[in-house]
Amino acid sequence: MPIQAMKYVWMNGELVPFEDANVHVLTHALHYGYGVFEGIRAYETPQGSAIFRLTDHINRFYESAKILMMEIPYTATELIEATKRLVDENGHASCYIRPIAYLGYGEMGLNPLTGKTDVAIATWPWGAYLGEEGLARGIRAKISSFKRHDPNIIPPAAKTTGGYINSALAKAEVIKAGYDEAIMLSGQGNVSECTGENIFIVKNGMLLTPSDASGALSGITRKTITQVAKDMGIETHEAQLLRTDLYLADEMFITGTAAEVVPVSSVDDRVIGTGEPGKISKELQRRYFQIVTGSDPAYDHWLEYVKG
Ligand SMILES: Cc1ncc(COP(=O)(O)O)c(C=O)c1O
């Protein structure tokens, strides 16, 4: 899906015209992948554009930077205000939002501590990341031969730019093989996560999800779904899951800001449940869309309005 040009990109405190939002070819992060980013969505609601759990995403952005020992030269409040202003100036009712902090042009070499951190925020309209059909009918997933990197290699708790080579390798492998999304196992062989989504299975009326110790990112959509499920009286347990637990699940779905809540119809060609999106998955997906679009007042505290 090509990115659609927007009016502005926020770069180091300024709103820069889209076509001028460029970096030098000797930007440190381009060479060594030393950067952190976030993925956030704004949705159209009856009270105008609202950014879903913006503060939680910005807080995770700082946590990622802390893991990499990068200083972000703005406060969280400044970045929250900058994000709202950018969404407003770009005239989006709904959009995807990408804050990024990276070692910029100036120093080269592997010592990241001497570099200068540049910060940018971009926005663009982005539809269903795994396709409308995937959202409605479920996706076909395959376990990749690429393992998720572990906390002592590239900490998966940080959303690092370079770390996503791991996800991209897994994605390319399964797309080439004719599947929609890759599942990655940890070095120990337990289920970790997808390339940009957390995993849930439904088993005997409960939700099971791999813990962060498996190398999964602590997803904000995962936390959202866990809370919504709890409010429906459904328990979630973090568990060490084997690939066979996925094959034998009653239902399965994956969660992420870009992908949203997507049912999984098969894993490695083993049909999950009936092969149709399951009852619990469908209900959680329905509630998720109600919440993010401002149609469920019980969760209004997760919506950060662009105006007001
Ligand atoms: C590797 C990975 N796992 C899981 C997720 C889901 O996280 P969230 O729900 O916070 O978007 C993402 C997306 O940020 C991701 O990149």
Distinctive features:
nine-stranded mixed β-sheet; D-amino Acid Aminotransferase, Chain A, domain 2; alpha+beta; 8 helices; 308 residues; binds pyridoxal-5'-phosphate; 2 domains; eight-stranded antiparallel β-sheet; 27% helix; D-amino Acid Aminotransferase, Chain A, domain 1
Please describe what this structure looks like.
This protein has 308 residues and is α+β, with helices and mostly antiparallel strands. It folds into two domains: 8-124, D-amino Acid Aminotransferase, Chain A, domain 1; 132-292, D-amino Acid Aminotransferase, subunit A, domain 2 (D-amino Acid Aminotransferase, Chain A, domain 2, Alpha-Beta Barrel), CATH 3.20.10. 27% of the residues lie in helices and 28% in strands. It has eight helices and 17 strands. It has helices at 28-32, 54-67, 76-89, 132-137, 164-176, 220-231, 243-247, 279-292, and strands spanning 8-11, 14-17, 35-37, 40-45, 48-52, 95-103, 117-124, 139-143, 181-185, 191-194, 198-203, 206-209, 236-238, 251-256, 260-267, 270-271, 303-305. The strands form two sheets. Strands 8, 9, 10, 11, 12, 13, 14, 15 and 16 form a nine-stranded mixed sheet that branches. Strands 1, 2, 3, 4, 5, 6, 7 and 17 form an eight-stranded antiparallel sheet that branches. β14 and β15 (260-267) form a beta hairpin. The longest helix has 14 residues, at 54-67. The relative contact order is 0.15. The model has no long low-confidence stretch (mean pLDDT 97). The site of pyridoxal-5'-phosphate has 14 residues, from α6 and β14. Pyridoxal-5'-phosphate (PLP) binds next to α6 and β14.
